[in-house]
Design goal:
112 residues, 5 helices
Length: 112
């Protein structure tokens, strides 16, 4: 479910035309990064960090904001991986109308 949610965010959020794909390298990286960061941060917050002694009653908000930061970092890293892959992927040469226009400019008969 988390993979599907991240894939939907990566499909809906950018302002570009792109195909919907559930499994992309960025989605997998974001989900694995998010899960590992969650587990590591949970262990850190439970054993090492003593936020309540340092920050008092506001410690829960500090911990929550730090978790949001780690979560957004994982999502942004996955989105960046997908963007780099999409940028370097071979592009389609366009629609049939664009192909016909290029052929006319080159002085050739358009290929259907």
């Amino acid at each position: 479910m988390l993979t599907l949610a991240v894939a939907l965010v990566y499909y809906v959020a950018p302002n570009i035309e792109q195909p919907f794909q559930v499994l992309t390298p960025g989605t997998v990286l974001a989900v694995l990064g998010w899960l590992s960061a969650s587990l590591l941060f949970s262990g850190y917050a439970a054993t090492v960090a003593h936020y309540s002694t340092t920050y008092g009653s506001i410690a829960a908000i500090v911990v929550l904001l730090l978790y949001f930061y780690l979560s957004s970092l994982a999502l942004l890293l996955g989105a960046e991986v997908n963007a780099v892959i999409l940028q370097h992927a071979p592009r389609d040469q366009g629609s049939a109308d664009a192909k016909a226009a290029r052929a006319r400019r080159a002085g050739r008969k358009p290929v259907s």
